[in-house]
Write the structure tokens for this entry.
Amino acid sequence: MQGHLDIGLNDTGRWQARRVAQALAGEPISAMYASDLDRAHDTALAISEVVGVQVRKKEGLRERHFGDFQGKTMTEVEATLPEQALRWRMRDPAFAPSGGESLLQFRQRVLSTAEHLAAQHPGELIALVAHGGVLDVLYRAATGLALQEPRTWLLSNAAINRLLWTVDSGFTLVGWADTQHLEAADGERAPLDEANA
């Protein structure tokens, strides 16, 4: 569980970053914001080189802070902190691992950051490069799903997800989990997600 641990991209991640950059070439992106954690920021830099838009770091786009869970596998957490692991798995919105964020705190941070950025660019296409948890919050906001609902949608690494934001309606879903750009002609790579990265 990475959370706020600043772990960089591996070779696959760098390949995916180049592929998503190529897929966004020619898009009229007017601004780009990224989490300040290396894995997201370096992906944004790869996109920036192709689309020609400067990346601005936003701490509000960081992954959820997992507190004492960070750097551990879920199996390790379940073995040492079984009650906390259960609350985590049940998606208890008020639960926060020691030193970390609850889902409620995380959602507030992500939505206020994303709404603020969108409001600064009315009528423009902006790119946000972040993390799976951030995307989960945005998807739920766009579809009206509660924090406790089990996840049934993909959160693929380097996928292109499209949302529309308006003052009156907030976020609405336009497109989700587009990974066509990650499918190499020779089948050398397949999209990765949180479960098989």
In short: The chain has one domain: 11-66+100-182. The mean pLDDT is 93. The radius of gyration is 17 Å.
